[in-house]
Amino acid sequence: MMDLTIETWSREKITAFQEIKLQQALNYVARNSPFYQRYYREEGVSITEVADLPGLQKLPFTTKEHLQQFNPEFLCVPPHKVVDYATTSGTSGSPVTFALTDADLERLAYNEAVSFACSGVEKGDVVQLMTTMDRQFMAGLAYFLGLRKLGATVVRVGAGIPELQWDAIQRYRPAYLITVPSFLIKMIEYAEVNGIDYRNSGVKGAICIGEPLRNQDFSSNNISAKITEKWDISLFSTYASTEMSTAFAECAFRQGGHHHPDLIIVEVVDEEGRQVADGESGELVVTTLGVEAMPLVRFKTGDIVQVHCEPCGCGRNSLRLGPVIGRKQQMIKYKGTTLYPPAMNNLLNGFDEIRNHLIEITTNELGTDEIQIYLAVDEPSDDFQSHIRDHFRAKLRVTPKIEFLTLEELNKRVYLPKSRKPVQFVDRRGN
What is the percent of the chain where pLDDT is above 90? Predict the structure, then answer.
């Protein structure tokens, strides 16, 4: 049974509810998690010291390195209770395996169902799933389970191939698509070349994953604007990760991803691990609630975000996460300027001439960061290269090196056989 009212409770009631759930989660890992039993013993801390949400700060952080080094120790159930294994994408390190029980899959379905409902998907809607469900990809499975729980009809086309996507759209008339936003641009281009009347396709919205749609003030970024200039559909941004088994989804007001208080506890901390003020940026730290196989306590996601706590126009009072500013590991320091790859992606997405791009970060002989950008454009020229550099200087106060490649050459670097996502950022510092 979905509880769609909890997010409309008062902040005080949400906090009291989460503190009860926190005690249950901590008692569970104390009884069942070999990792946390050993970790807390070695750190000289006890969960009995944690009486409320601020008390969480008495416990040490869990990191991605912990998950990589001690992965089997996180399992809290006997192996025969595991019904599925998922892996992280390995974007910022070695992939990590996550076990899920039947209860965890039910929780995953609930999470996606309330997230889709938040973005306006209703029972009976036809939704086209344009992501993979194989290769241990948790998200694709989660979308299917959530839509099924919500009572929607799922069209499982999988990733890529615009022709197949349009064939399915014309046959099944989906109301919503689940896709990476940059692929929508390829869909539009294919439709225009092949005479498909995409504006009258019946699609009214897209649930977008993997790439941001908003600037930090929630205005449309370049990729979002490029889509909606041609195709009048509603775009909804989501943020999630395998580790959290939880999503933050936009509502119709598009003012950040809504928090599901019954599924996860959220902290945002600075470099010293202290809670930042509302609206300030910091690293997202999460404690999962209701996870049976591999729960996490104070897990540092590595994602830099801003939290917004004022009530939303939709009536929800739970906190909201702004667009991810970047991954902590991917922070670039360039001649006194600090920036993250999403800002560069957004700038490059503003040029219609660019067919694909790849950002590569290296360290020079002085030990400072260097930015190399590879571009595939229809008509490469020195003037266009200078124009891109000028734009970077004006908007981001950096001047990258730029090299043109053919689209075929660049696609081979971006679309790797073993990767579930396009690789448009490569960090070669320290290699």
Answer: 75
> What pLDDT, in 10s, does the model give residues 111-130?
999 999 999 999 999 999 99
Side-chain half-sphere exposure of 362, counting CA atoms within 13 A = 8
What is the signed CA dihedral for 311, 220, 139, 421, rounded to 10 degrees? -150
pLDDT, one tens digit per residue, over 38-97 is 999 999 999 999 999 999 999 999 999 999 999 999 999 999 999 999 988 655 556 789
Model confidence at 1: pLDDT above 70: no
Single out the residue of 146, 187, 185, 186 nearest to residue 170, CA to CA: 187
Rounded Cα distance between 297 and 35, Å, is 11
Domain that residue 161 falls in: 1-326
Q: How far apart are CA 143 and CA 316, in angstroms?
A: 23
Residues 262 and 355 in one domain: no
Domain boundary among 305, 326, 347: 326
The partner residues of 205 in beta bridges, in order of sequence, read 176, 234
Query: What is the C-alpha to C-alpha distance for residues 412 and 397, in angstroms, rounded to an integer?
Result: 30
Distance CA 171, CA 267 (A): 45
CA 185 from chain centre, in angstroms, equals 20
Q: What is the C-alpha to C-alpha distance for residues 393 and 343, in angstroms, rounded to an integer?
A: 13
Q: Dihedral through CA 5, CA 6, CA 9, CA 14, nearest 10?
A: 180
Residues with Cβ < 8 Å from 28, sequence gap 6 or more?
76, 295
Q: Is the pLDDT of residue 5 over 90?
A: no
CA distance between the termini of the chain: 50
**For residue 249, which of 259, 262, 241 has the smallest C-alpha distance?**
259
- Using the 3D structure, point to which of 283, 306, 326 is the last residue of a domain: 326
Do residues 199 and 229 touch, judged by C-beta distance below 8 A?
no
d(C-alpha 358, C-alpha 227), whole Å: 21
Q: What is the pLDDT of residues 407-427, one digit of tens each?
A: 999 999 988 877 767 888 888
Q: Is a pLDDT exceeding 70 seen at residue 222? A: yes
Residues shown for the chain? 431
- 6: pLDDT strictly greater than 70: yes
347 and 261 in one domain?
Answer: no
Q: How far is CA 249 from the centre of its chain?
A: 10
> What CATH code is carried by the domain that includes residue 388?
3.30.300.30
